[in-house]
Design brief:
The structure holds 2 protein chains of 2 kinds.
Chain A lengths: L1 H40 L4 H22 L2 H6 L1 H14 L6 E4 L2 E7 L2 E3 L1 H16 L6 H16 L4 H17 L4 H21 L1 H11 L10 H13 L24 H34 L3 H25 L17 H18 L3
Antiparallel strand pairs in A: 1-2, 2-3
Helix pairs in contact in A: 1-2, 1-11, 1-13, 2-13, 4-5, 5-7, 5-12, 5-13, 6-7, 7-12, 8-9, 10-11, 11-12, 12-13
Chain B lengths: L6 H30 L1 H12 E6 L6 E2 L5 E14 L7 H11 L9 H12 L5 E8 L1 H9 L5 E10 L7 H4 L1 E4 L5 E4 L1 H5 L1 H5 L3 E6 L12 E4 L7 E2 L4 H18 L3 E8 L5 E7 L18 H4 L9 H10 L16 E3 L2 E3 L12 H6 L3 H22 L26 H8 L8 H12 L3 E3 L11 E3 L3 H17 L13 E11 L2 E15 L6 E8 L11 H13 L1
Parallel strand pairs in B: 2-10
Antiparallel strand pairs in B: 1-8, 2-3, 3-4, 3-5, 6-7, 8-9, 11-12, 11-19, 13-14, 15-16, 17-18, 18-19
Helix pairs in contact in B: 3-4, 9-17, 11-13, 11-16, 13-14
Classes of the chains: A mainly alpha, B alpha+beta.
């Protein structure tokens, strides 16, 4: 009986953790955006209102996806993925896709602006779970990854590419890939990454500043320096809620990719460690879900979703603490951004859905 | 259906196992930045958030004994522009400003000034300093044009209303290595901290674009004005001393000259003049060697004006009386390979101590010094304040050194007795002679009203009175007597000291001097006049003494 109880409570726990994290995110977003929001929109709560709306949409989406029969999702996996691919091509077309800061990532549909690449994270995970139910040859897997990576890099969006490739690779590994295949994959990946870095002076600089963050504090290493200043200012217990100084136009991407810095500055080492532990908690819980289910599709999909969270969290946080070169990836549930938030809640919905089948 | 515990399950377990390790590393890294590197990063971060505006403190004035300004501070203005607020083009702004601003030292012609302003405006920063040191007239004109984006800051500049008057008393205000205002030499150097006051600071926080953060920290520290100091200098006497000295230097074609006038009873310096001097307002245009006051910073061999100190000591010890006869004065005295002669190589057997001073007889001085002996000799010089700083409020004062009694050789004692082979500063010698004027009481010199001088008894009143009488006779019977103002009783002594160059004395190069005080009974002023290398005559009696009397005459008026 006890076993059954804990199982029935698990889906709720997952959803609530997601909502709590998102609410904490709202506080952080308000904090980080208050000045910008007031200056740009004349409304201190502009970003918070937007994000709250998305949170509501996300929770509804999670409830819906948690109720849709998994069999149905599995059945239409190819179509869902196909639609996403279509949108991914659409976004690249000038005039259709909206360009911002040199990247073509957004589709504008009336009042709604969204990133197809966010949707791709989910639909591709579903597609892979179905596709990898049977053993696949590595060359087919590589072709598949290649197409997705290419579409993303045409935007370009290195962060998302890393997430998609990373998640795919881990699903491939979980599905039972041979060790030899994994080694081949790693070799190709290494080759591709070096190529990407060498081909772009911008990425080259990112790597250089990663090696030596103090090299050019006002130029290429400005961002990472501001990140570290924020972390350092936070110290053990933080400067206190609302008292961040780095948010005053010093820290780039303060509401999105760099929001962790504002949290670390205001809540200190203690606060940011607690946040990390909660995130690790949600990861472990979702991995538990995939361990508990027996169906291979369920298992791969649940793992795919868990790994989606894992890689995003890992890439974001390790960029912020300079463990890897700075890579623009949002922190799930916390960073400002509708597409990302809704996608993460849809993923949570799927996870809840699967957990019920264990 | 797949076995729940198949390959996928195992590989999931691997991932689940790895996650805590990965995130542990992440937290360690976070610990490194937040805790270990925290303080350092915080400092750097604060640096970019905070701007500190310095509010300069007005420097305290230096006043004469009656409250007249010797060194004052002018309030000028610094013109700057905040570009984001500017509504007209750079060229228009320059042309508007050209109508209000006048060229100065930095940009001496209108064309220079125009180019200077254009260059300033071409700079890329938001806040640009346009011009320093605008007069209040210029400021008013600019303000009347009502140009948006311009602003003013107070700036204080030292000025000296009497130009070079008292340069060596005042010193000047320059900039230290960090560009901060700093007083150098003289009173400006000595009282720098007091005159400077404390600068104020406004500390504000700014955002990445340099705009102030409204909810940021704000600290305001008022500037505290520097304190004014009132000197003992009498502007009228200072003026007399300077103009007479200048005249004297021309008349006697001397390289340099000094005058110090001291109020005998109090040790207050009423005037101090030295030439060549400089203009403290334009100090950079003068040679650096002219900055230090020779009165405090130059050691010289005093020669015969030193003799009264030695004779007074011998009188005080009752080793001689004014009537004591010298039994070694019939000819030159040989000490080892040296021979002590008199200045005119005339010798007076059995000459009295009074006559030794009147004739400035070197051999008689050797007689008196030998009576004293090296220990007492050294002891007295020390009591007169030689070999130590007089503690006058001048930064560059030096002390010189004094030989200890046990280190005196026979020849040292002999030459020192008539002021050779011993180096003192002019302020030391006048303070020492003033001891005689004061009935034997040493009183330390001062430039500041209200200071309590150091006092000590060196001579008993009888000895001081005897010595005064001898010095009166020295004036009345000496060669300079015709220059003395009629009816005035002066106690004084001439000096003509050869200047040692590489250990030898050049008979043509002398420091001619006269020291003394008047009226001899109940004296008012003690005065020293020196000339370096006068050309018309090498003798103190023919150069320094006439000037001394001429100034004394003025002081009596």
């Amino acid at each position: 009986m006890r076993h059954k109880d804990s199982k029935s409570r698990l889906p709720l726990a997952i959803l609530f953790t997601g909502i709590i994290l998102a609410c904490f995110g709202l506080i952080a977003i308000f904090d980080a955006s208050v000045i910008d929001a007031y200056r740009t929109f004349g409304d201190k709560f502009h970003y918070v209102k937007q994000q709250s709306l998305w949170l509501l949409v996300g929770v509804v989406a999670a409830l819906i996806t948690s109720a849709i029969p998994i069999a149905w999702i599995k059945k239409y996996a190819y179509i869902l993925y196909g639609i996403t691919l279509f949108l991914m091509v659409l976004v690249l077309i000038p005039g259709v896709g909206s360009k911002f800061l040199g990247a073509r990532r957004w589709l504008v549909l009336g009042p709604i602006v969204f990133q197809p690449s966010e949707l791709l994270k989910i639909t591709f995970a579903i597609y892979l779970a179905k596709w990898l139910e049977v053993d696949r040859e590595i060359k087919h897997f590589l072709t598949l990854i290649g197409i997705n990576a290419l579409l993303i890099m045409l935007q370009p969006d290195l962060g998302t590419a890393i997430i998609i490739i990373g998640v795919s690779f881990l699903i491939f590994y979980l599905s039972g890939a041979k060790l030899k295949e994994i080694i081949v994959f790693c070799a190709i990946l290494l080759f591709a990454i070096s190529g990407l870095i060498l081909s772009s002076p911008y990425r080259m600089n990112r790597v250089k500043t990663f090696m030596d963050p103090t090299s050019d504090p006002l130029g290429t290493s400005y961002h990472i320096n501001q990140v570290l200043y924020g972390l350092g200012s936070g110290g053990f217990s933080g400067v206190g809620l609302g008292r961040s100084r780095q948010k005053y136009a010093f820290l780039p991407e303060a509401t999105t990719d760099s929001i962790f810095v504002i949290i670390a500055e205001e809540f200190g080492f203690v606060g940011s460690t607690i946040l990390i532990l909660v995130l690790v908690g949600i990861l472990i819980t979702s991995l538990k879900v995939s361990m508990n289910v027996t169906d291979k599709f369920d298992k791969l999909l649940a793992s795919g979703i868990s790994l989606l969270f894992l890689i995003q969290i890992f890439v974001n946080l390790s960029s912020m603490v300079a463990l890897i070169p700075l890579t623009g990836v949002p922190l799930p549930f916390i960073s400002y951004g509708g597409s990302s938030l809704v996608t993460n809640f849809i993923a949570l919905g799927l996870l809840i859905n699967i957990s019920k089948r264990a | 259906m797949l076995n729940k515990f198949g390959t996928t399950y195992n590989r999931l377990r691997v991932i689940t196992f790895v996650i805590p390790i990965v995130f542990f590393v992440l937290i360690c890294r976070l610990f490194y930045w937040q805790i270990i590197r925290g303080p350092e990063l915080q400092t750097k971060s604060e640096k970019q958030h905070q701007t500190v505006t310095v509010l300069t403190a007005k420097r305290g004035d230096i006043l004469d004994s009656e409250g007249g300004v010797l060194a004052g501070t002018k309030n000028l203005y610094h013109l700057y522009v905040y570009k984001p607020q500017m509504k007209i083009s750079n060229n228009d702004l320059v042309e508007l400003l050209m109508t209000s601003l006048t060229p100065d030292q930095e940009a001496s012609t209108a064309a220079d000034l125009r180019k200077y302003l254009q260059d300033r405006l071409a700079l890329s920063s938001n806040w640009i300093s346009l011009k320093h040191y605008l007069s209040s007239d210029e400021k008013e004109k600019v303000e009347k044009q009502k140009i948006v984006g311009l602003g003013f800051e107070d700036e204080y500049v030292r000025y000296y209303p009497e130009a070079s008057m008292g340069a060596h008393i005042l010193g000047f205000v320059g900039q230290d290595a960090a560009g901060q205002e700093q007083g150098y030499f003289g009173l400006e150097g000595y009282f720098d901290r007091m005159l400077k006051g404390r600068e104020g600071k406004v500390r504000t926080e700014k955002d990445g674009q340099g705009n102030p953060i409204l909810i940021g920290n704000y600290q305001f520290l008022h500037a505290i004005e520097g304190k004014a100091i009132q000197t003992t200098i009498d502007k009228k006497i200072q003026f007399v001393a300077e103009s007479y000295l200048k005249e004297g230097i021309q008349k006697y074609q001397a390289l340099a000259g000094n005058v110090i006038i001291m109020e005998s009873k109090t040790g207050k310096i009423k005037a101090m003049a030295s030439y060549p001097n400089y203009d403290p307002g334009k100090f950079s245009e003068f040679d650096k060697s002219s900055y230090k006051s020779p009165l405090m910073a130059d050691l010289f061999e005093p020669g015969s004006i030193f003799k009264p100190l030695v004779m007074a000591a011998a009188l005080n010890e009752k080793l001689v009386t004014p009537e004591t006869k010298c039994d070694i004065c019939s000819g030159p005295i040989n000490i080892g390979k040296y021979t002590i002669k008199t200045w005119n190589e005339e010798y007076h057997s059995q000459t009295t101590m009074t006559d030794v001073i009147v004739n400035s007889d070197n051999t008689g001085m050797v007689f008196a010094a030998r009576k004293l002996g090296p220990d007492k000799f050294s002891d007295y010089l020390s009591k007169y304040g030689l070999g130590k700083k007089t503690k006058i409020e001048i930064q560059e004062e030096v002390s010189g050194t004094l030989r200890e009694g046990k280190k005196y050789g026979e020849i040292d004692l002999a030459t020192n007795s008539f002021g050779q082979g011993i180096a003192v500063t002019p302020i030391q010698i006048i303070t020492a002679i003033n001891t005689i004027a004061n009935g034997g009481k040493y009183i330390s010199p001062s430039l500041i009203e209200g200071t309590t001088p150091i006092q000590r008894s060196v001579l008993n009143p009888e000895a001081a009175s005897d010595m005064t009488q001898i010095m009166v006779e020295a004036v009345d019977r000496g060669e300079a007597k015709h220059a003395k103002p009629a009816g005035l009783s002066v106690a004084g002594k001439t000096g003509t000291a050869q200047i040692p160059i590489d250990g030898r004395y050049d008979p043509k190069k002398t420091i001619a001097s006269f020291i003394g005080f008047f009226p001899s009974q109940n004296p008012k002023y003690t005065m020293l006049v020196t000339f370096r290398e006068p050309q018309t005559s090498i003798w103190g009696s023919e150069t320094a003494a006439p000037l001394w009397f001429a100034i004394a005459k003025q002081l009596l008026l």
